[in-house]
Amino acid sequence: MQNLESELYPYLKRFTTKSFEYNYLSTTPPQRETSSAFFNANNDLRLIGLHFDRSETFDLADPIMPNKNRIGINLSKEERKVYFINLSVAEIRRTLIEEHQVEPSAIDMVNLMNVYYRHLSHYPVVSVVVKPYEMYIAPTDNLIHDSTTLGRNSIDVMLSYLGYFNHIETN
Fold this sequence. Notes:
The protein is an alpha+beta fold and about 170 residues long. The protein contains three helices and nine strands; from the N terminus they run H-E-E-E-E-E-H-H-E-E-E-E. The strands form three sheets. The protein has a four-stranded antiparallel sheet with strand order 1-9-4-7, with no helix packed on it. The chain has a three-stranded antiparallel sheet with strand order 6-5-8. Strand 2 and strand 3 form a beta hairpin. Helix 2 crosses helix 3. The longest helix has 12 residues. The protein is globular. The two termini are about 30 Å apart.
């Protein structure tokens, strides 16, 4: 891992003028509908599904949200599918308040997904294919997202970094 880090650091530095850090290396078995999971207090595996990350605390109403982005690098032998809702958290909150008359005080970081599913579950989900050794940059604190290993024959391996990735150097 240390060799990989030393090789990747100069490359990833091209995408930011600020700091970034290693986040995690994840593995997910094939044929799983959702890649997002955690172990509860009883050490039982719980699948999450579509979600937004909470790597930092933020104001749900802030349309700019200067939070960190995620770079996800597909280290698998097969394509990886990433799903997302193409609305920011602030846009979802505004839609719930203005179009569905949800009280602003009823929407917080803990219950946002439940309120979203109650009122906007019909909203389309976008799918993006990330080929082996390709990467993506996504504002995962500000975007409902997930990935899947359905249709795969091998384990999914994804390397994640968090930082203020905001541009691509073209030189």
